[in-house]
Each structure stands twice: as C-alpha cells, then as structure tokens.
Specification:
The chain has helices at about 5-20, 20-30, 40-55, 60-65, 110-130, 145-165, 175-185, 190-200, 205-215, 215-220, 250-255, 270-280, and strands spanning about 1-5, 75-80, 85-90, 95-100. It is α/β, with parallel strands linked by helices.
C-alpha cells in the first residue's frame, strides 16, 4: 500500500513531538535550520519534515494498521479540518484509497492512536467485505435534509457501537452512550439500551441492519413508536432540537416543500409559524 501524508499534518506533528523531547528538538534544529535559506526552500523543508516524522517513528502506528487492511492500493493521511472531523473513509475510483483524517495532537499518544486507527480500519474493512453489504445510499431520497442528516448521524454512531464489539473502543462507554442518547433522543432510555445490545452482537453488523435501525429504530426493535415527537428531538423540517412542538401543523403547506413529511413526524412551532404565515 502506498502511503501519502499531508505536509501540514507532518509539520505540525513533528513540531509537537520535537518540543516535548530535548533529543528530538536538537535533531529537529540540526535538520531544519540550514534549510531556511536558499532555493526550493519549501520543498526541501517538506522533505526534511517527512524524514523527521519517520525518524521520530510517528508513522509506525499508521503502517501497522494499514498492513491489516487488504484490497486497498493507496492510503492518504490528511490533516483534520476541525475537532471531531477525525476518521476514515474508503474512496473508490481508478484505485481504492484508505482516506484518513487526523489531528496532529494524535501523534503525542501512540497507543491511543493505535486504538483509534484499528477502530477506523474496521470500518474500511467492513466497506470492502461483500458480507457487510455496504452502499453509500441510505435510501433517503425525497426526505428532508434534516432527516437525512439525522439518519447519517444515527448510522455512524450505531456502526461505532457495532465495531466496539470486535475492537477496543477509542472512547469511554459513557461517551458512547451519550452519542446514542443524542442520536436517538426520540427513543426512551430502555429502547436505546436494547438498541445498543442488538449491535453488540457481531452478526448484527451489516449495512442493511444499520440502515434499518437508523431510519426506523422502533420497527427494527419490533416495538411501538411513541405518540408524537419527544422533547429535544430534531425537527424534521429545520433540523434543530425542539421542546415546543405544534399540535396543529399546516400539513398541506408543509407538504409542498416536503412531500414525504407526515404529521406524525411532528414540526416545531417556529417552522409551523413560518409556514402558517405564508398562507395567512
């Protein structure tokens, strides 16, 4: 597998690793200081940073995990754009690419990085496994943008729960439970617990199961849906959490913009006031 690194990520990681170690700092200064003058400065500095990145063995956890993934020709390691953006994906075109986003701070704790990488690599191997049945289509065509975002969020956290059953989790159990609570606020506490238990079984970790549970968790559990939206549940029209649901939404007007919307899904009072004003 060919591995390519984002130069910005490499430079930031090398700076962090060097600052915390006198021996590394000396090696860093000796390598970099002579390169600030002369032609091709940026190119030579980038090469020096990559050399130091390898000398400091910052790439070791990455290479160890990449070696576990078969069927991928290339790996791209990019700098995450913002906190919470870290993760892996599989890009498929002329070749299959393991695309990984990391924060530079991740390299300060190699063991935590290994745990995170193994967890993310399992997502990639799932996507490569025909038995998992992966497809980027979650069957949400015609749904509101808010509904699509909610289903994607639910899908991802359930997939993480399922991977937790076969790989050490990079997050504490309390944090994972909080993620489930936020994604499935419309379920009661017992239903959320039962949903997590279903995906603790390795055999449940398939794309069709994840999609079914993300789209309609009540049907997936074989349980009845609560009457009306729950407090704090995202409004299916605007996507914002609401504690003030309209009892009489203007259904005909709403359906002009959201044909698949049903009154049982609910609508926050602010959206209903806006739609009501449009026909007032």
């Amino acid at each position: 597998m060919r591995v390519e690194y984002d130069p910005r990520l490499v430079e930031e990681a090398v700076h962090l690793l060097a600052r915390g170690d006198p021996v590394r700092w000396l090696a860093y200064r000796r390598k970099v200081d002579p390169l600030y003058d002369g032609p091709d400065r940026e190119e030579r500095l980038a090469g020096a940073m990559l050399d130091l990145f390898r000398r400091f063995e910052a790439n070791r956890p990455l290479l160890e995990v990449f070696a576990l993934v078969e069927g991928v020709e290339r790996a791209l390691v990019a700098r995450s754009r913002r906190p919470g953006d870290e993760g892996a994906d599989l890009l498929v075109g002329e070749e299959r690419i393991f695309f990984l986003r990391l924060a530079s701070e991740a390299f300060l704790d190699p063991e935590a990085l290994r745990t995170f990488l193994r967890h993310e690599a399992r997502h990639v191997t799932d996507m490569l496994d025909p038995a998992f049945g992966y497809s980027p289509d979650l069957g949400m065509h015609g749904r509101t943008r808010a509904e699509q975002e909610l289903v994607r969020m639910r899908y991802r956290v359930l997939w993480d729960v399922a991977v937790d059953a076969v790989e050490p989790s990079p997050v504490a159990p309390e944090r994972r439970r909080t993620q489930i609570d936020r994604a499935f606020v419309a379920l009661d506490e017992g239903q959320r617990t039962r949903l997590m238990a279903r995906f603790a079984e390795p055999s449940a970790r398939t794309h069709p199961n994840l999609v079914a549970a993300a789209r309609d968790p009540w049907k997936f559990l074989g349980e009845s849906r609560s009457a009306g939206p729950m407090p704090g549940q995202p409004c299916p029209l605007c996507g914002f959490p609401s504690y003030d649901w309209s009892k009489d939404p203007p259904a005909e007007v709403i359906r002009k913009d959201f044909p698949d919307w049903e009154p049982a899904l609910g609508a926050c009072r602010q959206c209903c006031d806006l739609y009501g004003a449009s026909v007032g």
